[in-house]
Amino acid sequence: MFSKIIDEVKSSFLTNSNVYRETQCEDVIEVCYWLKLKNNHNSFNTYRVVVFRFLIWMKYRGIKLKSMTNRDVIDYYQFIQNPPESWCGSRRHFNHPEWRPFRSSLSKSSIKFNMQILRQLCSDLAQTGYIFKSPFPKITYSDTKELSIEKYLTLAEFNCMLNFITSLPEDSSSNRDFKIRIKWIIMLLIYTGARRSEVANAKMSDLIYKNNRLWFKVIGKGNKYGEIPILPELINHLNEYRESFGLPNINNRTALETDIPLVIRLVKNKYQAITAATIWNNIKKLCSMFAFEVNNQAFSDKLLHVSTHWFRHSSATFQVNAGVDIRVVQKNLRHSSIETTMQYQHIQQDNQHDETSSKFKI
Question: Are residues 160 and 304 part of one domain?
């Protein structure tokens, strides 16, 4: 029955655009109209997952948007903190028959994000007159602030990963292509702190020189424009990557290269972009391979949990630990709040312990 409910709601959504299909469910039609306003591709995909699982829960409970109450909102808030096992599954494409609304219980920050999106949905639907009143405004939630300070690699761990990449085989064209691509992706993520969607959408033309300094133009969350400095070390990796495709050094290019992706997939001698999902899968593949080779069980287990966003955390941590001004790190990461950036002011625990032990005497 649960799979049937998923299929009924899923049939109303397309996977690659913000177009909706015909459906008998009035709620789904209104939500699809609302999603169409999210013309940013990344926002659309993110919002779709949030509202889709909400619609599934509503259908499962026999609830309509027009009759939803504060009590229902609280019930859903409690539900996503610990969804049933039947609602959870491994990461799948949206169209996959075994796709499930959750992979596991949501983190506190994810719960807050989900509820914020649904609050906005109901607020907008109330303004259009589809529902009389949003059930969300008077609902308050416990403090969901969460520090993801453990979701990063130490510098030593990252260097071990680089050594592993260097040792990867090149005995076939596919192995060679993977080795070249994953090294470039890793270096790009760690040196820029960019999100995987930003990397997947980028072109070589997004690398621009200003006053003899190379910058990476990105359109991030909320369509916010930003520029990230490209360090000389990353330029070396960039030129090495470009050379593997027969492209000149970045400072010697003679064209804008608007048709060349920043991460290239060569298909019949034509440059094509890779997707954000491909970047995620490549990272998971690398970490799984590396975890199998690592002798340290704790590190091996850690590698199995690594995702692309860990490299954003790691980049921020490395910058802060290197002494880069926290305001500069904020600008590089394009955080709206300095408080977000300050979460990355980690102190290595060994150093923390040694420093305290050696100097704190009573």
Answer: yes
